[in-house]
Design brief:
alpha/beta, 365 residues, Rossmann fold, 12 helices, ten-stranded mixed β-sheet, 32% helix
Length: 365
C-alpha cells in the first residue's frame, strides 16, 4: 500500500519523476507532502525544518518523499481498518430485500449467492479466488480487500457460473472506461465492446476512466496481455446505446449507472441494457446502495434501486439479493477522503451517506 501511495503521491499519476520538478519552491513541495502523504496541513516547525534540509542540500526531493512515506505517521494513516476476523464473522442484515421479490425469476439460482452486497467471505471461496488471481494484481489478502476488486471478480465469476460468459460470447460494457475487466473479458469471450463518453481522464485508486486515447490505442492501457482482435472501444452515452436489440449475450456496468444524469438517467440506461441483451442474456450491474436513512440524487436507497435500476430493465433477478454485512464495517465505515489510506475498503461515509457496492445479476427471459 505504501508503494501505491508513492505512485499516486501528489496526484501526478504514474510519472513520479514529475514530483520533483512540478513545484516551483521547496516550501510548496513540502506543503504538498504534508497534504497528500500525511493528510493534514504542515506545522510551522516541521515545514521550516524540511525546507531548510532541502535548501542546504542535505536531502533531495525524492528522498524526502520516501521519508514521508516511511514515517510512523504515514504508516498509521495506512493502517488496517478491520482485522480479518471482523470481515469474516458477525454478519448482520442491513436492509430487508423484500421489495425485490416481484422481480425475481420463477426458478431462482441456488447454491451460490451472486446478488449481494460486497462480500469479503468470497475471498475464501476457491473458485472465486481463482478468478481473482486470474485477473492479476488485484488484492489477494483479506487485509487488502477493495470493493472495486470485488465488483470485477464477482462479475466474471457470476457470468461464468450462469453460463453467459463463454468463448463465443458477445459482451458490452456500459460506462466501462478502460477498466481491467474489459481486457480480462477479451481473453474469455469472442467480442467485447467498451463504451463510455471518453471525454477526459479521471483517476481513482483502482481505475482510470474515460481517457479518449483508449479508443485508438487500447493496448496502451492493457494491464496484461490480451486478445487485441476481441476488444474495441466506442464513444457512447449509456442512456442511448447505439446497437440493435438482442445484440449481446452479456451487458455489464460497474459503479457507473449512478452517474448517468440522476435516477432518471439510470432508468434510461437500464432500459437500454435490457433492450440490447439477447434472450437468455445476462446483465451484471454494480452500483452504490445507501445503507442509512439518507437520500441522494445519484446513489440509491433500496426503494430507488428497485424503481430506477431493476424495474426499468424489464429483466429478472436471478435470485433474491442478500443484504448483509459484517457488523464492524457498518459501525466503522471509512470516511472520504481518508478512505484511500485504509484497507479493507468496504463501506464508505460521505455527505451524510453510508453506502457500499451492491451486485445484481439479471436475465432476459
Amino acid at each position: 500500500m505504501l508503494k501505491d501511495l508513492a505512485k499516486r503521491a501528489l496526484g501526478l499519476g504514474s510519472k513520479p519523476s514529475r514530483l520533483f520538478t512540478d513545484f516551483a519552491s521547496d516550501q510548496e513541495f513540502v506543503e504538498a507532502l504534508y497534504r497528500v502523504i500525511l493528510n493534514r496541513k504542515s506545522d510551522p516547525s516541521g515545514l521550516a525544518h524540511h525546507v531548510e534540509r532541502l535548501g542546504k542540500g542535505e536531502v533531495a526531493r525524492h528522498e524526502l518523499l520516501r521519508d514521508f512515506i516511511r514515517s510512523e505517521e504515514c504508516r498509521h494513516n495506512c493502517a488496517v481498518k478491520y482485522e480479518p476476523h471482523e470481515v469474516l464473522l458477525d454478519y448482520q442484515p442491513v436492509l430487508d430485500p423484500a421489495p425485490f421479490a416481484p422481480h425475481v425469476r420463477d426458478k431462482p439460482l441456488e447454491g451460490a449467492q451472486l446478488c449481494e452486497l460486497v462480500n469479503p467471505r468470497k475471498w475464501l471461496d476457491q473458485g472465486w479466488y481463482d478468478t481473482l488471481k486470474d485477473m492479476q494484481a488485484l488484492s489477494l489478502r483479506l487485509d487488502d480487500i477493495h470493493r472495486k476488486h470485488y465488483e470485477y471478480v464477482q462479475t466474471a465469476y457470476g457470468l461464468r457460473l450462469l453460463g453467459a460468459l463463454h468463448p463465443g460470447a458477445s459482451v458490452l460494457g456500459v460506462g466501462a472506461g478502460h477498466e481491467r475487466i474489459l481486457y480480462w473479458l477479451a481473453n474469455n469471450a469472442a467480442r467485447v465492446v467498451g463504451t463510455d463518453l471518453y471525454e477526459g481522464n479521471w483517476a481513482s485508486d483502482n481505475a482510470q476512466e474515460g481517457d479518449p486515447d483508449v479508443i485508438e490505442n487500447p493496448a496502451k492501457y492493457a494491464p496484461f496481455p490480451y486478445r487485441q482482435e476481441a476488444l474495441s472501444f466506442q464513444r457512447m452515452d449509456g442512456r442511448k446505446l447505439e446497437f440493435d436489440g438482442h445484440s449481446f449475450d452479456v451487458v455489464y456496468s460497474l459503479s457507473s449507472i449512478e452517474h448517468f444524469g440522476g435516477h432518471e438517467g439510470s432508468a434510461q440506461s437500464m432500459a437500454e441494457i435490457g433492450r440490447v441483451l439477447k434472450k437468455g442474456g445476462v446483465a451484471a450491474i454494480a452500483t452504490e446502495l445507501i445503507l442509512n436513512d439518507a437520500s441522494d440524487d445519484e446513489f440509491f436507497s433500496l426503494a430507488d434501486l428497485v424503481k430506477y435500476v431493476v424495474a426499468p430493465s424489464g429483466l429478472k433477478l436471478v435470485q433474491m439479493p442478500v443484504l448483509e454485512l459484517p457488523r464492524a464495517v457498518l459501525e466503522r465505515p471509512l470516511n472520504l477522503p481518508q478512505e484511500r489510506y485504509y484497507r479493507p475498503h468496504l463501506v464508505l461515509s460521505e455527505r451524510g451517506l453510508v453506502y457500499t457496492s451492491v451486485m445484481l445479476f439479471l436475465v432476459k427471459e
